[in-house]
Amino acid sequence: MIRIGLLFLFLATVEAYPVCAQPSNASSAAASARAAAAAREYRSAHQHEIAAELRELLSIPNIASDAPNIQRNADQLRLMLERRGMRVQFLATVPGRGPVVYGELLTPGAQRTVMFYAHYDGQPVDPAAWTDTRPFEPALRTHSIAAGGRLIPFPAAGAKFEDDWRIYARSASDDKSPIVALLAALDALRAGKIAPAVNIKFIFDGEEEAGSPNLEKTAVANAELLQSDVLITCDGPVHQSGRALVFYGNRGVVDANITVYGPVRPLHSGHYGNWAPNPGMRLAQLLASMKDDQGRVRIEGFYSEVTALTPQEQAAIQAMPANDAELQNELQFGEAEGAGRTLVELINQPSLNVRGLRSAYVGAQSQNVVPEKAEASLDMRLVKNINPQRQVQRLIAHIRKQGYFVVSGREPTPEERRKYPRVARVDSDHGYPAARTAMDLPVSQAVARVVRAATGDVVLMPTLGGSAPMYIFEDRLRMPVIGVPIVNYDNSQHSHNENLRIGHFWRGIEIYAALMAGLAW
Amino acid sequence: MIRIGLLFLFLATVEAYPVCAQPSNASSAAASARAAAAAREYRSAHQHEIAAELRELLSIPNIASDAPNIQRNADQLRLMLERRGMRVQFLATVPGRGPVVYGELLTPGAQRTVMFYAHYDGQPVDPAAWTDTRPFEPALRTHSIAAGGRLIPFPAAGAKFEDDWRIYARSASDDKSPIVALLAALDALRAGKIAPAVNIKFIFDGEEEAGSPNLEKTAVANAELLQSDVLITCDGPVHQSGRALVFYGNRGVVDANITVYGPVRPLHSGHYGNWAPNPGMRLAQLLASMKDDQGRVRIEGFYSEVTALTPQEQAAIQAMPANDAELQNELQFGEAEGAGRTLVELINQPSLNVRGLRSAYVGAQSQNVVPEKAEASLDMRLVKNINPQRQVQRLIAHIRKQGYFVVSGREPTPEERRKYPRVARVDSDHGYPAARTAMDLPVSQAVARVVRAATGDVVLMPTLGGSAPMYIFEDRLRMPVIGVPIVNYDNSQHSHNENLRIGHFWRGIEIYAALMAGLAW
After folding, report:
1. Mean pLDDT, rounded, for B136-144
2. Nearest CB to B332: which of A264, A269, A354?
């Protein structure tokens, strides 16, 4: 466990900021560029402190269900925000889960309020799968593992980080580094004596990777406190081209775990094979029935609720960099799903993904048995307008149509196992729907303008492939939701060897400083 | 680790046995019944010592690849055999593997030589899957776990074992208890002053559960030493009805591990799902293509080498107890594979069994990724005349026909992954073919007669569903191979919670004593 003392102090308070007027589009761009430059200067001079704050946060294990540790994360965030003079509240703590961490920094005279969203929990980890490092002991490499990066010690105070270096840890990208970047952006503005253009609110979720089951209730209960003119979500990677990205939607998601049953105990496959039903084969046949060879889902009604993209959204997709072939080459596969459609077209469709399979053992641990069960874990991504529970019901209806008796939330009884030729258990979480904000709103255009001014370039995307419960802010709190991610795309988020490219992190600080100081519409 | 001193000594030598003449069928049956009765008396009086010897052997871990421990098993067997005055040899030790343990006890004047086969290695274990006990720490229960059996201490010397009690340990049934039963049978005959009717040879394999890759070479190199009139294999369970069983064949087997590839690293399923190929779904589609809904294998030529059963074999199948419905009820499934054919009919066909599946994670450990690979482990059982390697080639040809580029024994290269739409790796072991001895040979009938005389009843079966490398003795050493198993069918062999029912073990001692003293043809 790495623990690094934070030696620097923040003495400023809200009152230290000068009052600002509402700037024009041109002055907004100029303010953005100025703030980005100030942030660049600040982060160059304070690399060590910024990285140390990130390392300290990454060292706290953050699986949503790990109650004591997720609370430690929240406590650490409170300290980090309070050091910046923010007013901090823990919202509606659910027993056994981390609270929503809310922070607020009002700007005297500001007409607009911008809320930044991030989450501080991470996906489950399998430490054995990590290469030479451990998920909650941040480590530094000279490049990505794929590019042959080797482990190096973190540099001493004063020594420089190279842009291509990468920090390896769970949530290095998803989603702790944006939090630290937001705070570094505040520090940079303060150091540069640049006033924010807006009131700033932070909302940090502690169970996003567990599907944010409590966030909606919490947000609605605190609707007045959270009221803002726009929500900017910091979750997600930038474009694979490396260019900065602004996106206007997130897919929704709902998970399902399917168990298919064989004999009640594993049987010797010689004595009982070909007669006792094999759950692995039955599961394979069931899954195979769900998609055609081209990857199109064959579940009835799966695409029925999809709404068409607007002409502007279609145009944005057409304008995006065409890098599928390059990406496919890097990812080493010979044929994509989707019958030739591009990745960005496909993520505007709902998906069905087999995220895991398990039955007995493979490889050296194989045993010659007819296993007693086989499991598949699916995630289904949703686009705007698809109801998560209706999608699960379509899945279950499809499984029934394949001849299965289906139970949920419990094991089948011996009587049910004996009675029905095929028995499956399907458990799903509550899931959440997609969000999508119109790209032609003034604020939508303003965010794009700021990011372009800060970085010289921006890719605009109607919907990110990844999910986040942004519907809460869009549908329930009635605010536009716009994504401004900062981390590298090849960050292995959700898997082992998650990492953050340092150069992306630095640029992220600049982008967030520009948004805070330059966003106007 | 349990270690029990063997306090009893064996002073007799080969010379202690009287010379015997060749008996008639009737006298053979009488001798069998007499030997069984003597064995019953002996095992009733020596329960504690017999069980102690078994416990000691079960306490030595016996995975074939665990070289130091498998050698400890062999050393222990040498001691056990030498205590009975047997001449013991370790045959052709392969580095890193346990030797074939050979023992010999000649009967002066005997016209026939009977070799008993068993194996002392066991299937791999997953200790976490066992219920309240550990694989190599034998434990006693009042009944099977399924029947609510509770753990009890082994009885003190002099106290009785109940027939329904069960010993839980890896190889309690498969296949160490037959070895201890053979030795107890020898002790019983000696105690009853009954001479064996035949020369007795033991051959104990140390890598049967690893496919016996070296047994053939060892057997052929020692053909003269091993020459016998019949091989009796002690491996396998008795009939599910509980009745004693004699079988005349074993299926062969060959294993295959199939890996299907997705992107070179796990990808966020939101950002890349529906586009990056999902290896779990592709594996499901590939497996689903291998069998129809009724469980019939659709791989071209899969059944082409099957030879027809003889009228006598067909008649034996018809005469077997019809207990499929009862078994299905116990095993809790609503529909068997095989389009209504009986279990015993189906095990006279080759099979394809999915013994394991693995891709990323399921349940609470699920991560929202497109995994980088998915694996299935298959075992294919073979009947008489099917060549194992040809069956693997048929499997590979089928996979190619589904559009796959197939490699074996290595990972695909990045270039291959990029070039081919579908890439699979198929690794198989060498496997071995089935064995089948004619049921109407004099020795075949004689073995059935002895077992019937010893137990009052016998079920005759042309082929056992389980595999054992009996082709080595049948095809290479040119001897009939007949199976006389003793252990209960519901023994969870090959899986967790393997167990031996005590009553079956006792009866096994009686059967083996009857074979040694009564077998004549």
Report:
1. 98
2. A264
